[in-house]
Amino acid sequence: MFPRLSCLIWCLAFIGLPVLLPRAAQAQPVPAPAVLAPLPAAAAAPTSPRRLDDFLLVARQNSPLLRETANQVRQNRLDSLVRARQNGVQVAGIGSALYYPSITNSQGESVVGYDNAVTNGGNYAAIAQATKPILNRFQLQNDYQILASQGQVLRNTGRLSALDLRRSITEQFLTAYAAETQLTFSRTLLTQLRQQDQMLRQLVNGGIFKQTQYLSFYLSVRTQEVTVEQNRLAYRRELGTLRALAGVADTSLISIEAPTPPTHRPLAGLLAPAQRQYTLDSLRLLLDRRAIDANYRPKVSAVVDAGLQSSSYLPVALAHSVGIGGGLQLGLPIFDGHQRQLQYQRLSLSEQSRRGYRQFLTVQRQQQYQQLEGLIRASDALLGRIREQLRIADALVGAARQQLATGDVAILDYLNLVTSYRTLQFSLAQAQTDQLRSRFALDYLAEQ
Description:
Blueprint: H1 2-15, H2 52-62, H3 64-86, E1 90-99, E2 103-104, E3 110-112, H4 116-119, E4 122-134, H5 137-205, H6 211-246, H7 273-295, E5 299-310, H8 315-319, E6 322-331, H9 339-406, H10 411-447
Antiparallel strand pairs: 1-4, 2-3, 4-5, 5-6
């Protein structure tokens, strides 16, 4: 009992020695792809952004999605290094200490136990085995190309994610800018009404207007004060949403700057990220087909081992059972139920889907681009008409304000002019925002 236990401990200690793994010397990995960084390290993000570019800068630096994509690209590079190591020499320790008991009767015949001719009573081994794949150039090159393709897909996904982030930040920035513009109009109108309110009090006291007429104007001033507060809350809400999207911790109510309209650019071609993803999908399907072919090629590995193997646990037997061995291992698929053809059919269906998506995307993007160009032209014409009407309304309000001081214009008529002027201002702000949305959407398509 005790000699066998000591033998088991000795064998386990033998295979537990540390083994140094050699580096792969024959196959070189695919060159590591450039790491996708969310932003250059030198760029400093403002703590309280006001411009659109500042919000985009902060959003790219704070985006966990872009950071995750950058890490996935780094992981892809590590995967190529792992594949290179897998093609090198692999060393493993193999140990066993097996005892096969046998119970005999009084005549010496075995009652319970394996045939001693098969088991030899036990199996005690401690071996270090080294294996190295050989004649696998096709498999290795295809694996490296698959990893390189995955890196390209990840980098293209990162560009698409950055574009989507820019679109969401830009849309929310325009929404906040429209809310701020409306707040500015409301404040300006309230200031004018309060100035008129002081003048009308004097006119009412002088008997030019009746008290009941003044009450209508007084109610309009109070209503405008409520409108200003509502617009302030709306602007605070939209600004807070913008900051939340960009990851800005500031909560103060500040004024944002007007965005600069982007230049008109042509529609992005086949090298754009949205189109490139389908090109990369085509390459991936081609490599998947080659991977299927590689699985049906013979696999040859060189094997070398050294250690001890014995059917006896006695130290004398173990000391004379140390040796080495080597040879080749061959794996060759013969029949698998025509799985290869079924996998080819799956890839063909995936290719049909890819072509359908790409064709649909191409037509859709062209239609969207032309529609946005039409909307921009219509917005330019609408803005021209609104500005002309606003100029006339401003002149009418100014003239009515002067006549109001002499009592030549009724207060209700003056309020109607002011209401029309306020409506035109709101229409102008909405039309300007819609035009900016169309321009930025067109710019997004020009890069996507």
